[in-house]
Amino acid sequence: MRLLAVALLAGSALLAPTSPSSAATPDEPVKVTAPTPDSPVSGRLVPAVRGEAARAAAGSQVSAGVLKRGESLRAGRPEAAKPSDATTSDTTTITPWSGSLHVVWGAFPTVSSIGAQATHTVNPGISIPSGNPDVVYAPTLVPSGKTCIEVTTFYWQGGNGVGAWDWCAASPGFAAVAWIDSGFLSTYTTSFQGLPAYEVLDVQTNAVTNSWTAYLYNYTTSSWDALFTSADTAKLSETHGGWSMFEVYTEYNPSTGEGHYCTETYGTQYHAANLKIKLGSTWTPLTTSNSNVTPPGSVNSTDFGCYGLSFTLQTANSHWQVTH
To answer: What's the predicted TM-score (pTM) here?
Structure first.
């Protein structure tokens, strides 16, 4: 069923992006219509690498981090290292650690939904050099346990991309990867608080087959383009909530005294805004009554193996921001 859905969608896809002469520049994207879940679906695919090519493009380093918390997806929360694994009580000092430190922060729906929509900023200027073992997933979105697809913005030494991870595949992995290049920026982003940002819709399209499609909003056509489609009825029994979060796998860099990623991401911001979920036929923003912020309370930058990070809720809990 999953392969048939993808094949049908691919058959009607127009894969060529808007020509540079008609598209806005990355610095001045065109915003035709504000996207809603009911905005038109184009029938086109987001230009991306798919299938085994997507797995190869993302690489084992990026995929390993998602797989590492695969079992915790089924438990309803990702597994993260305790802050004490990397820090002391002195928040100005980072204690060296060995291996990969895994830490997360974000908004976690406490109800089971059948869809989510969000505005995700991107940082095309991040350039993580070869040999840097770290991966930043920010933001990464899972509507609920029922979903087949996780949509994540990732930054690593192999490049910066927006990927659809297929949790309903027999062997879960990246099924589509769209690189954050000039074509992506001019077609799928608009300006949000001075930053380029794309709009994502990850929604159940068939309740019987539990088919899900992740869409990105095309600002040049004012319609949703499909990133990936997948289905699996077995996931219907997973009734826990999902997440929208900032996630890092980082190793200690003795030359800087912090995580490897900290140097290359200095001066960046990550936003997940306008977060809403679909409950029945109703779309509702994330609030303190239907979601939690994890971990709760204040978060120290050093918990993430990095100096200078700040964590802000601009709107509880529908807009979180991480600034470096």
So the answer is: 0.86
